[in-house]
């Protein structure tokens, strides 16, 4: 598909809520996810980016490991050349993958080339673990290449991230899949603070302490899997996982508003103060997710009820990042408040 028209159904991007970062920059309060996993082709995901921009999205969450930045770049090129949207109206994220922690600038330049952009609005360290696993591999077992988190290695990577800001290649830098102990060390030792932290956030996994820590430190939380990633591949599911869109509280509110429960998850996220980045290739879904930010809000009582529905159910456990035998995935997340020794 080529060409670009503003859809008749479009939401006015100016009406979509925005968040102010500590730098003073404004970031759109909802973005479109672009991880199609093995369920959707790269072209389908790129088409969803084109469609999402045509209905009013201005924030797109990309990553080199998703393997589709070159297709999405073609969309950006067409749209920017058409002049209907200007570069400074877009907010584009990308992320350095785990095998490039020692070559951050090279990774960033490749993403810029693929995305056909001169700069990124936000560049994230995708995971604090520097090991590699191929996308699509069995994520429920340990990778033989797994390496532990080490503060000094992470800071080496962060220094390279800071240099990208100095060089004008990126406007902001941030983190993803962090914990409070790891973030405390980063804030202690960094020269340029992270502007955003991308973290798993949905009604059944609210991370209240880490969320509050980010807000208190002027780090904007961006919430991935905001709908609880209901149709993720079976290999990414554990028996103990719960399903947000089947939660009775979410379902009841959805019935009151006559919307899909997914829309309630997005409304809750925006009203709570995180930036959700829901994925969908279906126009009716990504449009209703965007529209949810400008329609009737949840009541205070509904927000309270959802806050009590938390089940501390982490979906993206990261088992592949375990670096020695007999560890459990909880060790990756510093659950007792201490970083697990390497
Ligand atoms: N930083 C990280 O480590 C990290 C990790 C994971 C994800 N992410 C980012 O977060 C994004 C979102 O995560 P995700 O895709 O795993 O989970 P998600 O957004 O919670 O769930 C996406 C699924 O929800 C369904 N859906 C979306 N909108 C809907 C609607 N209005 N009504 C009904 N169903 C709807 C769709 O299922 P169907 O396709 O079946 O309709 C879609 O595939 C990713 O694309 C990626 O950009 C980042």
From TrEMBL:
Zinc among keywords: no
Marked site positions, Lowers pKa of active site Tyr: 95
Residues given in the record as substrate binding sites: 126
List of catalytic residues: 66 (proton donor)
Residue intervals passing through the bilayer: none
Domain NADP-dependent oxidoreductase per the UniProt entry, residue ranges: 30-310
Pfam families, sorted: Aldo_ket_red
EC number: 1.1.1.274
Key words, A-Z: Oxidoreductase
InterPro entries, alphabetized: AKR, Aldo/ket_reductase_CS, NAD(P)_OxRdtase_dom_sf, NADP_OxRdtase_dom
GO molecular function: 2,5-didehydrogluconate reductase activity
PANTHER family, per the entry: ALDO/KETO REDUCTASE
Name of the protein: 2,5-diketo-D-gluconic acid reductase A
């Amino acid at each position: 598909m080529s060409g670009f028209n503003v859809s008749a159904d479009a939401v006015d991007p100016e009406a979509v809520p925005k968040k102010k970062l500590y730098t003073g920059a404004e970031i759109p309060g909802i973005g479109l996810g672009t991880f199609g996993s093995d369920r959707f082709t790269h072209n389908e995901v790129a088409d969803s980016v084109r469609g999402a921009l045509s209905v009013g999205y201005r924030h797109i969450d990309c990553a080199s490991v998703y393997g589709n930045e070159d297709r999405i770049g073609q969309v950006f090129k067409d749209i920017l050349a058409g002049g209907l949207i200007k570069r400074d109206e877009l907010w584009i994220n990308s992320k350095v993958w785990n095998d490039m922690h020692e070559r951050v600038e090279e990774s960033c330049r490749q993403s810029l080339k693929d995305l056909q952009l001169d700069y990124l609005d936000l560049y994230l360290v995708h995971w604090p673990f520097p090991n590699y696993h191929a996308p699509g591999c069995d994520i429920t077992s340990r990778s033989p290449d797994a390496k532990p988190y080490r503060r000094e290695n992470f800071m080496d990577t962060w220094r390279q991230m800071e240099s990208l800001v100095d060089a004008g290649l990126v406007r902001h830098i941030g983190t993803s899949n962090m914990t409070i102990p790891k973030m405390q060390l980063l804030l202690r030792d960094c020269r340029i603070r992270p502007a955003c932290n991308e973290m798993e956030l949905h009604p059944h996994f609210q991370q209240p302490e880490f969320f509050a820590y980010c807000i208190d430190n002027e780090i904007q939380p961006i919430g991935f899997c905001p709908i609880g990633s209901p149709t993720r591949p079976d290999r990414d599911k554990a028996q103990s996982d719960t399903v947000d869109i089947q939660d009775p509280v979410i379902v009841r509110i959805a019935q009151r508003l006559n919307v899909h429960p997914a829309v309630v998850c997005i409304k809750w996220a925006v009203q709570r103060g995180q930036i959700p980045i829901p994925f969908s290739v279906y126009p009716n879904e990504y449009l209703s997710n965007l529209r949810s930010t400008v329609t009737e809000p949840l009541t205070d009582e509904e927000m309270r009820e959802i806050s009590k529905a938390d089940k501390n159910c982490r979906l993206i456990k990261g088992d592949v990042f375990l670096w020695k035998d007999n560890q459990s995935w909880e060790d990756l997340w510093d659950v007792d408040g201490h970083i697990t020794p390497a």
